[in-house]
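I'm curious: can you give me some protein's one-letter sequence along with its backbone structure tokens because I've never seen that pairing?
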Amino acid sequence: MDDAPELTSMTRQRNIRPLLAAWIFVFVMLGAAFAWLSLSSDNNVASEEKPALGHGADAASSDHSSIITAKDPEEKSGEHSKHAGAEEHAGTEEHAGTEEPAASGDTGHQDKASSGPSPEMITDRHSLPKAPLDGLVMMGAHGPLPVLGPDSMVAWKEYARPSPIDAQSSPPTDLPKIALIVTGIGLNKKATELAIKLPGEVDLGFSPYGRHLQDWMDKARKYGHESFLMIPTEPLKYPENDPGPQTLLTGASPRDNLKKLDWLLSRVTGYVGVINEMGSKFTTSEADVMPILEDLNGRGLMFLDSRSTRFSIAAKLARRISMPRAYNNLFIDHIISANEIRQNLTKLENTARTYGSAVGVASAVPLTMREIEIWTQDLSARGFELVPITAIAGRQPIR
């Protein structure tokens, strides 16, 4: 019995040691589990960060490749040209190269030419004064209208871009003169921006149906462009071919057509004159054309006959009333094709070489503007001078 306490004590000690070991084992396992979880969490974070960096690099390389692609406006142009030519131009004398090509100029072309002309390819901008100029405008029923100014001021001269022909500082050259106008300005933002980046000697034709026209006009003049306002006139297949709700119509009273003309002329200020859009029927009718020309001439504007038909008499009638005028020799992109555009630009050179001057009309399609940009780079080296249209007013022979 005396040994009982000792035996009890020994038994108690033996019972305590396994329990302590068990607790130690539990704590060790918990520590190991905690450490494992910590390491696992760090690895997950690292693995999440690496794909994010990799994705950014991929995105950057993707953006770079898309920029390179955007500089090639001719890629897949054959298919686009076929559709554009069939939809916009086939089966009609009209050059539907204003509103329609700008809208149907295919987003593929627009994306591929979105980079625009490079800065080193841009000629002297010769920024023009902001319009309107004092004395050359008055408020009409629909907005500002051009009028004759004091001291013989006329819009077609005051808003014109100076050229070597009329500059006193540099005498005119004997080189054949070529003038170009890009029509459909204001209908499509990207196309309009591309057109404004063309050499300043290239004229711009503003659509009366465009948006923010005065903003575009101000920017165009800042970049050195003189401009014309497009006047929709009745085509042969009207209303199948419809240039818009304010179209001047044959058979309508002069009063009705002049009301429409007032609306059209008030859309923007700062243009040197007007160019007819379509009009293969209207421009063959003296009774309908003459009241329009007389009104325009009385406002100090120039007239550019787009000659959508070879039977147009508009330029002849403008000469009869001593109105400053010019006429289109060739539609540059009647068919939206790089080869066609290049061939037509060469034809325009031949016309200028023969007659001393020539005018070409193009539409605000990215492919066309890219070809024009390239063509102008060595034009002087080939023996030609690019001039604004006002520089050859009245200089073309009218047959």
User: Anything to note?
Assistant: The longest helix spans residues 4-70. The chain has one domain: 77-392.
